[in-house]
Write a structure and sequence with these properties.
Blueprint lengths: L2 H18 L7 H6 L4 H36 L11 H15 L5 H26 L6 H23 L3 H7 L16 H12 L1 H7 L3 H6 L4 H22 L6 H13 L3 H30 L11 H22 L2
Helix pairs in contact: 1-3, 1-13, 3-8, 3-11, 3-12, 3-13, 4-5, 4-6, 4-11, 5-6, 5-11, 6-7, 8-11, 8-13, 12-13
Length: about 325
């Protein structure tokens, strides 16, 4: 079976399973036969379906953002959480929470996007100025930049008693996703389509500025477009559900081993695998505490950002160690 078809099949299974996994006793049979109680019907429409859609959209979009960053920086260890992009979006949210605490979510998203774009631009300026040849140094620069930005955000949040809110933004949790509170995520689907339409330009830009310019491509414009998409995706996801650390690192690297570095060929599979990864992690986060508590329905949940971060951190470490061994 071709990889895209396998990815679509996995996504369909994950979407279907996500709808029926959780504390509420909702079965497929009840849905098919119309045997749902009114309470379960409301819960399904208002909470379970929006949660499933939010997980799929957030996972797909952040995986695409990671692919774009890796192509445009020509480094497989770069993604929004290793380039200061996510932390910059968090800083923007803290600033708007201090200056305009009653601002609507769209304003928060715009401010977070501006800060994320500025943080990404600063990261690109840093790696251009340093001009490193070691691929390990680039993400370390991004991680250090992100640490500085994150420290500033934490200081401001602590001074205004917003630290708990900042922590919620920095770690994705879908337990509070309801109808009417996640729809902003559909914007990232539009950005994903835009990334696919311009995928060939990103592939050429990934060959380097000299090669891209020699082929007639405006390298700076394409990089600006790609990083704008990344910043917008990071802002929307952080504002709506919180950050999913290192997802954009793991998924594109897995896909590149399967289909190569052609963005047009790899981007759909990256989106599918990103969505499936987050959906599976979300289901595990919902189910694992109850299983460990002997089937208790009130055992709580593990935030999906925690599980994604554990997987991403392990893969990141394994990639670095493998790179060191290979010289």
């Amino acid at each position: 079976m071709p990889w895209p078809a396998l990815g679509v099949a996995a996504l369909v299974v994950a979407l279907f399973a996500s709808v029926f996994v959780g504390a509420a006793d909702i079965t497929v049979w009840d849905v098919l036969t119309g045997g749902l109680s009114e309470a379960h019907r409301v819960y399904l429409v208002e909470a379970r379906l929006p949660r499933t859609a939010a997980a799929a959209l957030a996972g797909a979009s952040l995986a695409i953002a990671g692919l774009l960053m890796q192509l445009l920086t020509r480094n497989r260890f770069v993604e929004p959480s290793t380039a200061g992009t996510v932390e910059s979006a968090g800083l923007g949210l803290v600033v708007v929470a201090i200056l305009a605490p009653g601002a609507p979510i769209v304003i928060k998203m715009i401010v977070a996007m501006v800060f994320a774009l500025a943080g990404t631009a600063l990261f690109l300026a840093c790696i251009r100025r340093v001009a490193v040849s070691d691929s390990f140094i680039v993400p370390l620069i991004g991680i250090m930049l992100g640490s500085v930005v994150g420290a500033v955000a934490a200081f401001l949040a602590l001074s205004r008693d917003l630290l708990q809110m900042l922590n919620a933004w920095m770690l994705a949790d879908f337990s509070a996703v309801l109808a009417g509170r996640y729809e902003l995520l559909w914007l990232v689907a539009v950005l994903g389509v835009l990334a696919y339409v311009t995928a060939d330009r990103f592939t050429v830009a990934g060959l380097g500025e000299d090669v891209a310019t020699g082929l007639g491509l405006d390298h700076r414009t394409v990089v600006a477009l790609g990083m704008s998409i990344v910043a917008a995706v990071a802002a929307v996801v952080v504002v709506t559900v919180g950050a999913l650390p290192l997802l954009g690192l793991v998924v594109p690297n897995v896909v590149s081993r399967l289909v190569g570095d052609d963005a047009r060929r790899g981007l759909p599979l990256v989106a599918l695998l990103g969505a499936v990864t987050v959906l599976v992690c979300d289901m595990v986060g919902r189910s694992l505490p109850g299983l460990l508590a002997g089937g208790s329905a009130g055992a709580g949940e593990i935030p999906v950002g925690t599980l994604v971060g554990i997987i991403g951190g392990a893969v990141f470490l394994a990639m670095m160690l493998r790179g060191v061994r290979n010289g």
